[in-house]
Amino acid sequence: MIVDPELVERFRADLSALWPYTEGGPQKLGIALSGGGDSLALLLLAHAALPERVEAATVDHRLRRESAREAELAANYCSEIGVPHQTLQVEVAEGNLQDRARAARYEALGQWCVDRDLDGLSTAHQMDDQAETFLMRLNRGSGISGLASIRALGSLPNAPIRLVRPLLGWKRAELVDLVKSLGWSPVEDPSNENVDFDRVRMRQNLSRCDWLDVTAIGRSARYLAEADETLKWVVDREYIERVSFDGEEAIYQALRTGVRGTLVKGGVIRAIFRRFGLQIDQRVGAALVESLTRGIKTNIAGLQADVRDLEGERLWIFRRENPRRTG
Ligand SMILES: Nc1ncnc2c1ncn2[C@@H]1O[C@H](COP(=O)(O)OP(=O)(O)OP(=O)(O)O)[C@@H](O)[C@H]1O
Fold first, then answer.
1. Where is ATP annotated to bind (predicted)?
2. Whose CA is nearest to atom 2 of ligand 1?
């Protein structure tokens, strides 16, 4: 099975930008193989780029009757090219099925990487997935972090290895062409046609729309991922320089000027909540910045946020809400 050497070279460059797989001796890459066109292309490219150093796993969520058969097909393709393959059966908990299936999937894949002594895991998210995610989030009013969409680098919940997505610069059509040109037929997931899913509707709309440029949207998402990293760095610095603890109180010396606007101050406030073991989202963080800037004391999500002026300086004080009196 010969993959076009130019494509293999391009893949090698994309992968090595994310994962220095040649450093420190040979490293092994796990492939998350659903059996769809994207992940079969990933399997072929990775196998050609890193011969003998690739293994694949297919998660059988057991949510559809055909899933066992699909995993078997994926296993057959792997055995055709001599790549070790494992099917991982998972139990998907009740609740939001897609979220639960995703969580179970990444957990099973992480455990598999540990068991097989793999150094990295790759999924086959590509440029069209990226554009769909970006537009769905834009349509929901997401902030920088959400609009950064699918990250090229990630982590797994239960395994200390890198999660890489080297195909974000590749279009779905070119990946499917690659697979078909070698005589393989991707597994068709019927949920890809189910218009109850936002993503499916977005995909269909995008395919009918000739003025949206998927490559340009992918570029914007990359810039935003970088902006998000930079913002995290600024928030960390602001936290280190301006937040202190006195007994049960967190004290934030928030400057009166609006220079460090809601993004940074909101980020610092969210970090303070995390220190108390509590979580608030970006919108609540921004709302708190606004009320504290106006000097309004607020009780929210388990903390009491207050304003104190000390020697011409404005301090924002956070402490646990007093337990409510009963009786
Ligand atoms: N059943 C599966 N077994 C192994 N890998 C899978 C499976 N389903 C998805 N993947 C991996 O994840 C990639 C993205 O798949 P998909 O677009 O279906 O995921 P998603 O629902 O968007 O969730 P997420 O982006 O969080 O992974 C696939 O290309 C493949 O690499």
1. 34-39
2. 34
Does residue 33's CB lie within 6 angstroms of at least one atom of ligand 1?
Answer: yes
Separation of 34 CA from ligand 1 center, angstroms?
Answer: 6
Does 52 reside within a domain? yes
Cα 312 to chain center, whole Å? 43
112/259 Cα distance (integer angstroms): 47
Residues 207 and 245 in one domain: no
Which of 33, 54, 125, 164 has most ligand 1 atoms within 8 Å of its beta carbon, as the pocket-test mutant?
125
The whole model's pTM is what? 0.89
Question: Does the CB atom of residue 55 touch ligand 1 within 6 A?
Answer: no
Range of the domain at 288: 231-320
**Among candidate residues 325, 86, 51, 61, the one with its CA nearest the CA of residue 189:** 61
The 3-state DSSP class for residue 168 equals coil
Average pLDDT over residues 96-105: 91
Give the ipTM. Answer: 0.96
Q: Return d(Cα 263, Cα 288) in angstroms, integer.
A: 11
Atom of ligand 1 nearest to the CA of 61: 1
Establish whether residue 15 lines the binding site of ligand 1, counting it when its CB lies within 6 angstroms of any ligand atom: no
